[in-house]
Amino acid sequence: IFSSFADHHIRERDKARYFNNVKRNLNPGALVIVGDEFLREHDPEDEADHREALETYHNHIIGKAREIGDEILVQLESQALQSGLEKLGDFKVSRRRYKELLQQAGFVIEGEELIGPKDQSNEIGGVYVYTIRCYSV
Q1: C-alpha torsion sign, points 115, 117, 121, 127
Q2: pTM for the model
Q3: Cα first-last separation, the chain
Q4: Which of 37, 110, 119, 137 is a good FRET partner for 28, with 20 to 30 A between their CA atoms?
């Protein structure tokens, strides 16, 4: 399975059911590749911390888009931030939380690669690619 920028559109409360459904439809040893956006580490139960993590991530991209004069990207990221704040369709989590959910569903994470930003991912969050295996069904 290849998933590109889709998992963050699944509510956290629905991710376990989603991962279990994916697993149910795979053969043992199947490979799953996920590329997606993740927030910096934060306490998801602390609304202020979660809000700050969302704002930090999206405002970083908005700032970069403004630097290059890409107003379309500024608008898209502004809308994504608003969607995340309002919990309407953007449900980013931290990498740690994502890995917990995968492991709870019985997946084995074989690889994690940061795509960007290379220099500030711990403070901002970023785009990562995960290589995941399903060894049992």
Answers
A1: negative
A2: 0.92
A3: 15
A4: 37
